[in-house]
Description:
There is one protein chain. The protein folds into two domains: 3-59, no CATH class; 69-135, Orthogonal Bundle (Helicase, Ruva Protein, domain 3), CATH 1.10.8.60. It is 44% helix and 7% strand. By secondary structure, the protein is mostly helical.
Amino acid sequence: MSLPVQSWLQRFTERRTTRECATRQFMDGDDVRFITLTSSNLFELVRRHQFCEPLFYHLNAVHLIIPPLRDRPEDIPVLLRHFLSVHARAPVPRLSAAAWQRLGTYAWPGNVRELRVVAETLASRELPRLFEPDDLPPPF
Length: 140
């Protein structure tokens, strides 16, 4: 986000005064919480004056580091089953052991977003209810 937007957001988090924000009016005393996500090193950006330091301290109240999907392959089945249940018509597609193996060894450069797209693709296909490795979308 640009430095002017960072500055505005920092002032908003500090003052919490009545301001028009998009289509919602925030009132004095409203409980506003921000959940932010970045793959950037904000400590380094603050040091280089590319991220507003006061805003960094407002947003860094709870700091979670979530490893990329490639570093936690045990999460792939849980997440894929969830995404399939959301996007598939009943019955939910199943994958063979070989298909699971291929998904578990993939590097997932697109992280969880890429896994969600794979689930959407599988759910939209009119293939057998048991997917084999050859049924997986590219680049598998």
